[in-house]
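TA notes. Do not distribute before section.
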Amino acid sequence: MSEPASAGADAHVVSAAVMADTHGAHNTVNTARSESLAPEVDAEPITHPGFDTTPVTRARRRDLAVAGDRWIARVLRGGAVLSGGMFVVSLGLEALPRSEEVHVAIDLLRKGAASLLLVTPVARLAVAGTLLGLKGEWRYTVIAAGVLGLLAIAVGAGIQA
């Protein structure tokens, strides 16, 4: 029924095992010599064309979170730098001789800078809600959309008053 150990020394027994981990099940092929009973000598993943079985690791999730934090930081930094630049330019315009055009430019720059400082956290909320929505955090996305909606209603009511 079976070959002697000397005749079938190069014969391998191939077995398939399903190994489960925290990310899902992965199929592996285990090869072992017929004379040894070691179940796992070389584990090679069974691959399917067009199907990626690589689980999202903690490092990958951390990289995505860091990328999202970078976008939020860019929005906040950009708003602060632009607003500060507008204030500095308005201070520079103070050195020019007084005229109606200079006074209007200074007034517009200062109002724009103050408005930009107020809008920057709102833009941060929109970016954070969008990024978390793309990651599947729907609860936070809905809350962020609700807050933005309430702010829009408040601004609309303030403009009409």
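Switch to the second chain here.
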Amino acid sequence: MDTKQDISKRAYDQLHKDAEKIRQLIQVQMDNLTMPQCPLYEEVLDTQMFGLSREVEFAIKLDLVDEQEGRQLLDNLEQELSKLHDAYTKTSLK
């Protein structure tokens, strides 16, 4: 039988895998500077971010993930999204 520590580690690992998928979506957009206001882009990233935030909340409620670390994972992705918007804004103003 798995210990709480094992289950907690697996929860962190899964959250990080899901966050990495979102990071990859952001990176593709950064590499191509595809318009962030594109409805499909916004919908996909919004849906992915919402899903991850629900996963984090669930893991926190089950006491598998530290609340601060879970929030930091989401905050890091939000910062990357902000960088993408900033990069697009700079290129569109040229």
